[in-house]
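Sanity check record (used in CI):
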Amino acid sequence: MKEENYYKLLKEIFVNKESVVTELINLEAILRLPKGTEHFISDVHGEYDAFDHVLRNGSGSVKEKIKECFNETEVDIDDLATLIYYPEEKLN
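Expected output for Fructose-1,6-bisphosphatase:
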């Protein structure tokens, strides 16, 4: 009886067997994506500027992505990173 309930639920959501398989493939692909960066920061009392900088630059991961994208070009990586971290200040 339980299996019949599952089949009924699947039929309500998916039009055919191929759409079920496609959804399973998509969900499997999502599960295999790399895990996002986690930050563990403690004792930040009175250190707003340093904390803000860590958040803006993603602990260096933003600059690493810039290097990946513009590795072989004449782009000033540090200048572009500063523009991304502090757009208001840099544009002034």
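The chain has a mean pLDDT of 87. If this sentence no longer matches the regenerated tokens, the check is flagged for review.
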